[in-house]
TrEMBL record:
Cell division recorded as keyword: no
Keyword entries, A-Z: DNA recombination
This protein's record includes keyword Magnesium: no
Entry's Gene Ontology molecular function annotations: DNA binding
UniProt cross-references to InterPro entries, sorted A to Z: DNA_brk_join_enz, Integrase-like_cat_sf
Protein name: Transposase
GO biological process, any: DNA integration
Length: 67
């Protein structure tokens, strides 16, 4: 089943990322978004296992094993 078939064609990895970042910013409650960016974003830091799980889930629509 595809995103389009279930009426979620607008849900993209970027939309998911943006939503997660917005929720995190709201929870942290910083007055300026730059505070969140400056202190919590690890540019260039990648967790290979997380990247592989997300890649697999988005490419194949499989359930991710969340051990």
């Amino acid at each position: 089943m595809t995103r389009e078939e279930i009426g979620l064609g607008w849900v993209t990895p970027h939309a998911f990322r943006r939503t997660a970042a917005t929720l995190l910013d709201d929870v942290l409650g910083h007055a300026r978004p730059s505070m969140t960016q400056d202190h919590y974003l690890g540019r260039g830091t990648v967790n290979p296992a997380a990247a592989a799980a997300l890649d697999s889930a988005f490419r194949q629509g499989e359930k991710v094993d969340d051990r």
